[in-house]
Amino acid sequence: MAAAADFIREMSDPLVLPLAAVVSGILLGRALSFSNFEAGWPVAVFLMLALLATRRLRRGCVLLALIFIGAWADAWHRPGARPTIDAGARETVVLAGCVVQPSLLSPGRQQFTLELESDARARVSLPLDDDVRPQRLEYGQRVEIEARVRMPRNFNNPGSFDYAGYLARQKIYWTASMTRGSVARVLPGRCGWRAMAAIFALRGAALDRIERLYADPYTSGMMEAMLIGETSQLQKIWTENFRRTGTFHALVISGAHVAVLAGVLLFFLRICSLGEIPALALTASAAWLYALVSGFSPPVARAAGGFTLYLIARFFFRRGRVLNLLAAVALVYLLSDPGEMGDASFQLSFLCVGALGGLAAPLLEATTAPFARGLREIGNSEADAYLEPKVAQFRVELRLAAETMEAWLRVPVKWCAEGIALAVRAGIFVYEMALVSLAIQIGLALPMAVYFHRISFTGLTANVIIVPLLEAAVPIGFLAIFTGWHVPAAFAGWLLKIAARTADWHARWEPGWRISNPPLWLGLAFAGSLILLAVALRRRRGGVPGGVLVAGLFAVIIWQPWTAPRASHLLELTAIDVGQGDSLLVIFPEGQSMVIDGGGVLQFGRMRRVNLDTGEDVVSPYLWSRGIRRIDIVVATHAHEDHSGGLGALLENFRPRELWVGANPSAQLLRRAEVLGIPVRRPNSSAAAYKYGGARVEVLSPPPGFSPAKAGNNDSLALRITYGVDSFLLTGDLESPMERLLMAEGKPLHAEVLKVGHHGSKTSTSAEFLAQVAPEVAVISAGFANSFGHPHPTVLGRLEQRHAAILRTDQDGLVTVRSDGHKLSFDSMLWHPAAASSVFNWALAMNPAP
Fold first, then answer.
1. Cβ-contact 99, 139 below 8 angstroms
2. Angle 804-809-810 (CA atoms, 0-180°, nearest 5)?
């Protein structure tokens, strides 16, 4: 440990090892759940030992003290019990509080955040009609509303995004839904901070200016997101190709925006002959103001903090180093809020900068950086003596080339030298951008695979073009906001559109591969190889073997040659928690996989834009968390959105060998299958039962020739799967008329496991039908506190009378039933929320369930 400390000191990055110690302490505290006292007394002991120990032992004692400081910080900031409101999900209550986030308008909806009491907030949503002028609420107003309140609830599946935790970090513990047409009653008096009111007013003025400058919704929404961090107008389809090509980081507001704006401001302040320290101080102040106006998003706040630390270092005549500065910012944030470590944006931000400082910077210094510096004052031969021999020789050769051009073109040699230097700078810039892009891609490969299940290949060239375009658009866009001029606004919009077209072109060449979660051993091995490579590059020896090791493990993460972990000789039925919808995973005894429906958002009447794709954002992450990369069969029981809405993403992500559809399938889904070259089957009850994957599959519905004019629940493709003595009956949304038809035709209905039809609605699962099925286990897929009242008490009563075990996704989360052919077993996500997995789950490691 002492040797490691000496090495870090030699690298002039002495804060890296303390950061590693604090991070280790936070993880240790979460694993062992220390109390404040249990984590605090070792800190005092080791610091006391450090004062008494020899120099070599002192370093070890300090590092041990830092480990327990991390554990103590985790214990100190551990959240307590969540606040509660005594109200049911369908009960309308009166709420009064302070508006702490002004009204945000999106198509058909208005949102604002209401602080009900100190650090206890509700996010309020109000549906809007097109012909109604919305009520604009400002920061600091005291208001009273009538709304239905519910606590945010996650999709309770392994691999799901912790939406409730994300809101809790913003002190938002409830969502409140106002009735269409209702208004908030403004109460007398003001609340909040006067300074924040001014900042929100400035933010609102900037957003209004952007909307006036850009008439079309696309450019306006994208510019609001890119410049101010306002994403309410942003549509997912607009950014999909930026995500696919790994250039989304350049589009969303981030630390890079702060760096660009700070660089431009610093340049002009220095031109105005302002001293370095005053210029840095003004720029740091502007960075914090920008962070506040843009919503104080964590990446921007971290960038402003890093710039402030750089200012402090320069004030004390210290040379700024990327890794040391990065470690300092991370220490401040982690000690003030250890929960940041589990945040994806925190990890991506610091790993990105770490890749720049640990991988890209040493490689550039060893290749082009000396030559780039040598291009300054290329005509000054006297400067050659102060440069490295290879750089001096490079300058001489360029001047000789310039003299040759002078002889050919009859142009002054100075012009020729500057022209050659400019061309070489352009070539070096392209090389450096490509190298930086490669370093970032490699450095972020693991979290990109875990969180987003994709690694971009076209990003190597896309970043070279898109990043400069969007970085140029940022200061030009702010010039347009400050001045109101349409010329810079149009130019910034033109740069954005070129960047979008570049992303679209690269996306056509981007492989459609998606990556499942890598195993734990591979994640640890890859992270360790990156650290070894960074050390080797700093020491300037061993870089080639380290690079080969990193490249090999990187290839294994992409290739993933192992077989997905699946139960052997078991028939498995898993009902994935997709809210108010259906999505079932069937794993056959011989390992084949079938996904029946993909969930979706069911809407009636006026359709509104929904950015949640259940197939992409809910079902796919669960399948990837299981290590599943390919599905054998996808089944679309019927065309209703709560069943088929997510299937398009599943076809794209998992490229099944077949798509089975019921009566009246979705035309859009059929077109997607045709484009992807996926064969479509239309099985009906006339087909004979057949063996598949070690089990027996029977199609019970729809009947042959059944094709009503209007899509409905009775179109559902119903299956009965038998393994040994156990049968699973999967009915989709079949209702009582089709249930009676099945009984009249004498179909084999008895099953030990019943997937209850139509989410437990009273229109399905009649008493007569249930008597013939006689299930031992009933699985119900329904949304928590859904507006339909599913499952209906009548259906639950029937199931209880038959003494069937009832598994509900709205109460139990993801539920699984397994059969070995002789007996059944079942389990639930909420019974084992932190169950160990054979795949690497970074989010679970950082934020384990209590």
1. yes
2. 110
**What are the φ/ψ torsions at residue 451 (nearest 5 degrees)?**
-90, -40
For residue 565, what pLDDT is reported?
59
Which of helix, strand or coil describes residue 101? strand
CA distance 219 to 444: 29
What is the average per-residue pLDDT within 5-13? 47
Q: Which of 503-517, 535-549, 754-768 has the highest mean pLDDT?
A: 754-768
In tens, the pLDDT along 772-797 reads: 999 999 999 999 888 888 999 999 99
Supply 247's token pair.
Answer: 């250039």
Q: What are phi and psi of 753, to 5 degrees?
A: -125, 125
Tell me the backbone φ, ψ of residue 834, rounded to 5 degrees: -115, 35
In contact, 113 and 184? CB cutoff 8 Å? no
Instruction: Name the domain boundary from 76, 107, 126.
Output: 76
Residue 704 burial (C-beta neighbours within 10 Å; 0-12, 13-18, 19+): exposed
| Band of pLDDT at residue 270, cut at 50, 70 and 90 | low
DSSP code of residue 838: S
- Whether residue 203 sits in one domain with residue 268: yes
Phi, then psi, of 537 in degrees rounded to 5:
-65, -35
User: Do the beta carbons of residue 757 and residue 735 sit within 8 Å?
Assistant: yes
Q: Are 50 and 62 in contact (CB under 8 A)?
A: yes
Size of the chain in residues = 850
Neighbours of 376 (CB within 10 A): 10
Nearest-angstrom CA–CA distance, 240 and 249: 12
- Judge whether 86 lies within some domain: no
Distance CA 351, CA 355 (A): 6
What total number of domains does the chain contain? 6
How would residue 526 be classed by pLDDT, with cut points 50, 70 and 90?
very high
Strand-strand pairing, 109-117 and 92-106: antiparallel
CATH of the domain at 145: 2.40.50.550
For 397, counting Cβ atoms within 10 Å of its Cβ (0-12 exposed, 13-18 middle, 19+ buried), the class is: exposed
Work out the average pLDDT over 796-814: 93
CA neighbor of 847 nearest in space, from 339, 276, 171, 97: 339
Q: How far apart are CA 115 and CA 411, in angstroms?
A: 70
Q: Is residue 134 located within the same domain as residue 258?
A: no
What does the alpha-carbon distance between residue 163 and residue 173 come to, in Å, rounded to a whole number? 11
Domain of residue 468 covers 198-342+457-514
For residue 751, the model assigns a pLDDT of 95
> From CA 826, how far away is CA 133, in angstroms rounded?
52
Q: What's the CA gap between 680 and 661, in Å, rounded?
A: 7
Q: What is the mean pLDDT of residues 294-316?
A: 75
Residue 837 in domain: no
Evaluate the CA torsion angle 773, 692, 599, 807 in order and state its sign.
positive
Contacts of 125 (CB under 8 A, 6+ apart): 109, 110, 111, 175, 176, 177, 178
Query: In what order do the strands lie in the sheet containing 633-636?
Result: 680-681, 658-661, 633-636, 593-596, 584-587, 571-575, 815-819, 824-828
Considering the domain architecture, whether residues 317 and 418 belong to the same structural domain is answered as no
690 with 736, same domain? yes
Long-range contact set of residues 288-297: C-beta below 8 Å, sequence gap at least 24:
289/199, 290/257, 290/258, 290/261, 291/258, 292/196, 292/199, 293/199, 293/202, 293/203, 293/206, 293/228, 294/203, 294/227, 294/228, 294/229, 294/253, 295/203, 295/228, 295/229, 295/230, 297/229, 297/253, 297/345
Rounded to an integer, what distance in angstroms lies between the CA atom of residue 703 and that of residue 685?
5
Contacts of 328 (CB under 8 A, 6+ apart): 15, 306, 309
